[in-house]
Amino acid sequence: MVLALGAAVYLNWRIGTPAETSKTLGESKLVNATVATEETQPQKKESDSKQSLPSKQQRLFSSAKTERDQIQDKIIDNAAETMKLEGVSENDMNTAQSQVAAVIKSFTLQNTIESTLKSKGFSSCLCYINDDGCIVTVPKAELKKLGTMIVKSTVQSVASIPFDKITIVSV
Fold this sequence. Notes:
The chain has a domain at 54-171: Orthogonal Bundle (Helix Hairpins), CATH 1.10.287. The protein has 6 helices and 3 strands; from the N terminus they run ααααββααβ. It has helices at 2-16, 46-51, 55-84, 90-119, 140-146, 148-159, and strands spanning 126-130, 133-138, 166-170. The chain has a 3-stranded mixed β-sheet, with helices on both faces. It is flat, with a radius of gyration of 25 Å.
């Protein structure tokens, strides 16, 4: 049995690895490509981009994120306490579970939107999703440079929120 298993693994490895194929004359994949080395193009670190914001803006984004996270944690904790109580009605249990699910969904969407906007050039941003739509806060200078359409299209593609329900606040 061990010998058969070993033979099967060997054959899978042998058949699964592609053999080198001959090259076609004139075939090229990187024609006119430029290659950047670390010496020619230094990488931009996240900490460098955060330092480009004034300290007042950095504190604003940091404290707002902390406050938002604390509120969401409190909602989850309250729902968890409700679920732990004995004699809780099924309606209250369902309400608590739906609150937790809604907070987790909005938290995930908010983080995805914030990460996506940072990857598109914003050094910092803050996203709030509620029943009325979405509020995105970004630095004013970066919003002027990158445009509101990037923010709205990102929110719309990630959270499927219509453009008219997206509010952009610049600080």
